[in-house]
Amino acid sequence: MKEKVVIVTGGSSGMGKAMAMKFAKEGAFVVITGRNLERLEEAKKEMEQFDGQILCYQMDVRDPDKVQSMVHTTKDTFGKIDFLVNNAAGNFLCPAEELSFNGWNAVVNIVLNGTWYCSQTVGKEWITNNQKGSILNIVATYAWTSGAGVIHSACAKAGVLAMTRTLAVEWGSKYGIRANAIAPGPIANTGGVDRLIPTEEAHQQKINSIPAKRLGQPEEVANLAYFLLSPQSDYINGECITIDGGQWLNRK
Ligand code: HXC
């Protein structure tokens, strides 16, 4: 990872921040994006304890012009891009019959369209420059198990999984670009857990359903992300690795 350039969308908090921290610790130059500049600057300060350079870029992944500017700024600053981690997400619990069209669009635009804008823009950079890069997408197990109250996110994440596999085949064959995904279960100190497991009772039920009997830690996801971007996983392409303490297999 030393002097590799990695973009992490939604990199100022939760899993995104943990992944960015891990990459910075391993010597990468890291670009973190997010909507809140103050939060980005705070995360950057923490990452500056390591040797690598950190660039904050304030943007919403729903804005394709901003995504393109971010990618060009990254290229201008560091001269190249090695890895893209599509981590930015939006979610809230809402019964399917009550979800407004705008609520659906907000989540699908962040998760599915945002991932696509970033992936295509970075991918075109790699293809134009004859460079082999790697994309890592963050999905969720309910993309294939289903889950009550998350129809917008489940459909968007299922789309991201299809995108991962399609790019792995299409860009893998033509350009040697890899695309993989991680499907985390409930991870402590993340927006996902705050939103999807809002009460102490729901929290206890969740813990009981996880064979590991605990939530995951953001650092555990970061270690897996590091492996999936490293040359050690060079033969893994189009794969989705679940990290959930065995939870989805235990659904009753
Ligand atoms: C019903 C809701 C709602 C809620 C928002 N909406 N929250 N509807 N219940 N709790 C509706 C609004 O009423 C509005 O529709 C539409 O959604 C857009 O809302 P805005 O607040 O205007 O949108 P915006 O400011 O763009 O915010 C986007 C967001 C928000 C997705 C709604 O929650 C957000 O910014 N989230 C980012 C952080 C996040 O969600 N992190 C968790 C990701 S975890 P109307 O019709 O009223 O105009 C994850 C996977 C977890 O994805 C997996 C764990 C196992």
CATH superfamily descriptor: NAD(P)-binding Rossmann-like Domain
Q: Which strand order do you get reading across the main beta sheet?
A: 3-2-1-4-5-6-7
Q: In the residues, how many domains can be counted?
A: 1
**Computed Rg:** 17 Å
Mean pLDDT: 96
Beta content comes to 5-15%
Along the chain, the helix and strand elements come as EHEHEHEHEHHEHHHE
Structural class: alpha/beta
List the bound ligands. hexanoyl-coenzyme A
Give the oligomeric state: single chain
Number of strands: 7
Choose one word for the global shape: globular
CATH architecture: 3-Layer(aba) Sandwich
Unreliable stretches covering 5 or more consecutive residues: none
Roughly what percent helix? 40-55%
Brief rundown of the structure:
It comes from Virgibacillus necropolis. By secondary structure, the protein is of the alpha/beta class. It has helices at residues 14-25, 37-47, 64-78, 101-128, 142-145, 151-175, 191-196, 200-209, 218-229; strands at residues 5-9, 29-34, 54-58, 83-86, 134-138, 178-184, 240-243.
